[in-house]
User: What shape does this take?
Amino acid sequence: RVHQWPHENVRALLFRPGNTLWVASDNSVARMLTGPALQVQWLKDSFASINCIFEDSFKRFWIGTNFGLHLIRDIRPEGGNLLTYHDQVFSVDSDNPFAINSNRVHQVYEDSFNNLWFAASAGGLNKINLLAKPFGVINRMNNHELPDDYINTIRNDQEVLWIGTRNGFSRYDKATGTFRNFLNNRVPGSTTHISV
Assistant: This one.
């Protein structure tokens, strides 16, 4: 039992096998190991404005923030209740066409083809293939077909990604690479829209 959470907000939860719960606040991440006695361990550094946490099929841990996407690897105890790790940050780099196109990442999702999809604001949809060499090459999707480049959420359904934006939602067919938009306002400059 946790008697007191030392932060104001809980921003994300991630349940993992082995009675493990990851909890993210606005700027900290804790691993809670449940069992006969609860053990709470903290990633040793803080992160700016956490939006989401995710573990991919290769057991790599991702933290989406308002200031970049963190890939956390080699998590190990440092002493006491702290965990140390290797942190690789993906952020906007206007000189690199394979960099993420927005620092603000709202959600991370992995499909059955080991593609990791990032929902970002003011940048749209990004994808990284977890099997590709070299690792870390980001594919910026053709976002001009989306109803809006501010993406709130993504969900997978077989060969289709459902993408919620600030102007309706879109169905992306991964096989054909085409989008079909729903509930979006087609009037440029209009302030009336449906945020999904």
